[in-house]
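HUMAN: Can I see a protein plus its fold?

ASSISTANT:
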Amino acid sequence: MEITKTYSSYEEINRELQILKVEKDLAYEKMHLSFTETKDSFTAKNIVGTVPGIALNIIGALSGPLKNVGIAYLTKKIFRL
């Protein structure tokens, strides 16, 4: 149920409008901050995690056939082949 507010002067109306504007601006800034934090959380590192990076560092230390086997294994695990 909506309650109708009555004002006795333009000063009261202007004050209420200022309060509503500040509340609107605050809500917008909260939404903008939330959007920015969400967008920042979608970096490749956050999506994939740190495990593949560690595995790639270990494979990078290997050479020759061991490296090829390691890369093939990771590829199969990542793409579920």
Notes: The longest helix spans residues 10-41.
